[in-house]
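Quick one: structure for this chain?
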Amino acid sequence: MKPLPFPQADQLVRVDQYDPKNPRPFNLVAPARLEDWNRLNSTFQALTGYYTEDVSESTGPLPEKVTRAWVSPRFFQVWGLVPAPGREFTLEEEALNGPNAVLISDRFWRRRFNADPYVIGKNLRLDGQVYPIVGVMPASFLFPNREADLWCPIPAGISVGEPRENNWFTVIGRLKPDVTVEQAHANLATVQSQLGQQFPKSDARLSVGIQPLKESTVGDSRRSLWLLFGSVSLLLLIACTNIVALLLSRAAQRQHEVSVRFSLGASRGALVAQLLTETFLLAVIGAVLGLSVAAGASGLFLALAAQLPRSKRFTSTHALFSTHFAVPLQ
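Got it. Here's what it folds into:
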């Protein structure tokens, strides 16, 4: 339910293309069309695309299957962060036939290299090709594909086959400040309409869809989570009501005891203090027991909810995305 852990996370959106007449729309975007959107729109700071694949990493004693994401230019501008340690991709690495480079996740860095602080410059062998490591992504980097451990640059607009019909990019964009999703959608729809006139064969039938990245990440689970939260809150209210009823019943049974104490000279304040102390001790004992059960059960619940978006605990906070990690946004 919390904002995504990125600078100005409300500016991040997912952008799709689809055919309104197709009952099974394709949401991936052609790299050439992505470049046109970047060039012609007026509401986005930047748009970037990625696609993932499984590769064989054979640097170690045994080959290992890892997930690599190919990312287009403007990747760091959109996400609003930079590697730590290391650097982002250079223009030469993002160009066609440029030098190889790879970024690794914090998880892969710790597991594969034992958090070696001198990992920058070491090589990975991916599907038989050597890729020097240029940086390590922050531990809090919440990439949409949680399995991805490697990121490599891919030149802008590169395609195999027909450049406007080969759709394989998932597109993430960052809105300009004070631009709403509706304004961005209207602007990008106009851009796509112009492309439809310029490329009628491939673009005339296409429309665009824009959704806040948080909604695309957790939207399907939001209603279920609120329903679960309401059910648990109602159960807590019922339990509290039952406890109050038990305390009142117990107090009624102790009327004779209270009368005797009054007759022996006990003050009203002393009796109230005694009753409050007993209730306070019961509350403390119940709270300790409840917290103990919650601490033990939380791990089990997280394991059962492994497929729930954002179910994993992230040790980093929004403070991690301060001036150390943030990229100046245009």
